[in-house]
Every structure is written in C-alpha cells, then in structure tokens.
Amino acid sequence: MTTVLIIVAVALVAACALAFLYARQTGGRGIRRRFGPEYDRTVARHHGDARAAEHELHERLKRHRSLHERPLTPEARSQYEDRWTRIEAGFVDAPQQAVAEADALLAELAHDLGFPDGRDFGEQSAALSVHHAEHVNGYRRVHAAKQGDGGTEEMREAMLEARGLFDVLASNGTDRPVRRHPHHAEGSGTA
C-alpha cells in the first residue's frame, strides 16, 4: 500500500512539474499573441531580452486588464469624429499643429473612455496597449511627431497610423469603421 502511495505521489509531482514547464514555455507565445506588434516593440526596447519584455507586459496586464471602457454616447462619438475630420483637413496647411491636436484629441478620447489621464502619456499608452495593442503605436508616433523632430512625411505617416487607434476608440472598441466626411478625408493629405 505504501508503495502505491509513493508511486501516485511521484506521478502527481511529475505531472505538476510538466504542467508548470509547459505553462512557462507557452506563456511567451500567449503574451506574444495577445500583444502582437507591441510585443516586438517591447522586446526591441529591452534590447532583445524577451524575458524582460514579457515581465513588463505581464505587469501592464496586471495594472490595466480590469479596465472596462465606457461607451461613448452617439453625440460624443459624432463630436469626436467631426474634430478628427477638421484636424485631418488642417494637416495640409499646418501639419505640426494638426499632429499636436491629434495627440491631444486621442488623449482626451482615451480618458473619456476610462483610460488613465493623458497627462501621464506613459501610463495611458500602457493601458491602451493592453486593450488595443494593434493600434497603440499610432498614438506613440503622433505623440513623438508633435515634438517636431521629423519632417512632414513622417508626420503624415504618424497621422495615418493614429487614425487606426482613433477609429477603434471612437467605435467603442469595435472594428466598426467610423463615419467619414469624404470631402474632408480625401483632401486632407492624410488619407
């Protein structure tokens, strides 16, 4: 009887050890799948250290996973869409101003949806990366471009990428495209 108990105990310990090893091996793939391109950017920022990047991303998940976005009212959505359209239309004449306004609008929109306040860009972009990893880089690019270090083409590309995040946020986190004013979007130089 004692021998049987020892064999069962050893089998249970072995099964737990195998489960633990499997979870550690697939954990990186799970976090990579969840964060997509954000995973690669984080690994690059950690000079290729995947373990450090995964630790950072797990910490972000712990801090921001429970955040629940508040939906926009139809009126608020329409106002944000109109403001974004005006910003895009103004890009041709004043690209630096348009980029700064886009950055401010994204910060305000994210905050209205329940994300951390945009005054702490790092914390707000970290929270956005947990919920919108595919699109958060557009916000980062616009935020960096407002400093004026890049040329007009770089600002244009940042605006295009940021529009992806705007569309997702303005559509209350769905992939449903937002309404566009065709005469503004095509003539803005950013479409």
Which terms summarize this structure?
elongated; 9 helices; 191 residues; mainly alpha; 2 domains; 0% strand; disordered C terminus; single chain; 73% helix
Count the E strands. Answer: 0
Strand count, sense and barrel status of the largest sheet are: none
Continuous helix count: 9
Radius of gyration: 22 Å
**Percentage of β-strand residues:** under 5%
- Structural category is mainly alpha
From the spread of the alpha carbons, the general shape counts as elongated
Distance between the termini: 76 Å
Mean pLDDT: 81
Helical content stands at over 70%
Uncertain stretches of 5 or more adjacent residues = 16-27, 175-191
Helix and strand sequence: HHHHHHHHH
What is the total number of structural domains?
2
